[in-house]
Amino acid sequence: MARLKPGVTLAHDNSELKAIGRRLGREFPTTNANMTFGAELLKEHVVGGIGGTLLPLAGAVALVLLIACANVANLCLARSLSRCREFAVRAALGAGRTRLNRQLLTESVLLSLAGGAIGLAEASAATGWAVRRLPDWLPRSEEVSLDWRVLLFTLLACIVTGIVFGLTPALRQQFDLESGLRHNTHGTSRGTRRLQGSLVVLVMGVSLSPQVLGDPTKMRAAWQQILDRVRSAPGVTAAASTPRCL
């Protein structure tokens, strides 16, 4: 291993190494004929092109996390709206808006930490199984493990997601004493209802009959018919389908 001098590029280094290889081939034709030298970055030597696979995978994980957080935030918002009477009583007894928001935020962070702990337990149980089944060409697969960096990232991710997605229900919660004591959730603000609607994403699985699956033309027509009927349903703004991998 070597370190390039400042201003020297890898291409320039390779050209010099190839010249050395050709010279040695001429001087020692018996052992060095048709042999050459080359240099590559240490990162490319260690991990190869696996980065092109890991980056989309990380993006997919981030997208799943975002969907899960949005759904949980919507559930937390609906739960906070159902507790209007409780919060109204607390406010009537002297609890300020900051204290009530802090309670909602604390519940959200605790929920996020509980989810992170379950995720770590599952990851710890699955890591050994996955490492034994990783392909041989995957670089440094024997070093895959859970370390303190993974634990720290999980902790930070739990806290950040808990705060960000817990703050939304806390800020949108309306503490109206009169309507709250009457347990009237119909007084929810238009912005809160709009926020709830934006977080609702419905996913369902659909199976076609074997007779349809055997004919690609019928299968495409059946999926198109299902999509058309879903899109025409009241309240649906968009619908799409994707194959489910089992």
Any overview of this molecule?
Helix 4 runs parallel beside helix 7 and helix 6 runs antiparallel to helix 7. The protein is mainly α. The mean pLDDT is 77. The radius of gyration is 29 Å and the shape is extended. The chain is built from 11 helices and no strands. The two termini are 45 Å apart.
List the helices and strands and how they pair.
Blueprint (H helix, E strand, L loop, with lengths): L9 H18 L1 H4 L9 H6 L3 H32 L1 H9 L4 H37 L14 H25 L4 H5 L8 H10 L10 H4 L2 H16 L15
The strand count comes to 0
Percent of residues in beta strands: under 5%
Distance between the termini: 45 Å
Residue runs with pLDDT of under 50 for 5 or more positions: none
Largest sheet: none
Provide the succession of SSEs.
HHHHHHHHHHH
Structural class: mainly alpha
Q: Please tell me how large the radius of gyration is.
A: 29 Å
**Fraction in helix:** 55-70%
What is the 3D shape? extended
Mean pLDDT across every amino acid position: 77
Number of helices: 11
